[in-house]
Amino acid sequence: MSIDPRVALQSLTTALEEHLIAASARRGEGDPTVEAAFFAVADAFEVYDDSLYEAYGEVTPLEVIDDVEDDDDEDAEEDEELEIVDD
Fold it and tell me: Could you tell me how many helices (H) and strands (E) the chain has, helices first?
C-alpha cells in the first residue's frame, strides 16, 4: 500500500509542529512529551522519504540518526578492525 507523498509530507509537517510545541513547553531533561514528539518526527520522516521514493524514485538529503551511542560503538569496532598487532 503506497502513501501519497503529499499526505506523508503533511504528516511530517504536523509532527514537526507538535515537536516544536513540546520542546517549547519542556518540563526538564527527559520530558516524555518531547521524547514522544521526537520519535513521531523520525517516524513521519521515514514514511515521507519512503513514499517519495516509491512515487518518484527520489529521496531527501536527510537521515534519521538511530542513536549517538551506537555511532561511538561502530567507530570503536572500526578502530579495532584497523588495529595492527605486532608479534
Answer: 3, 0
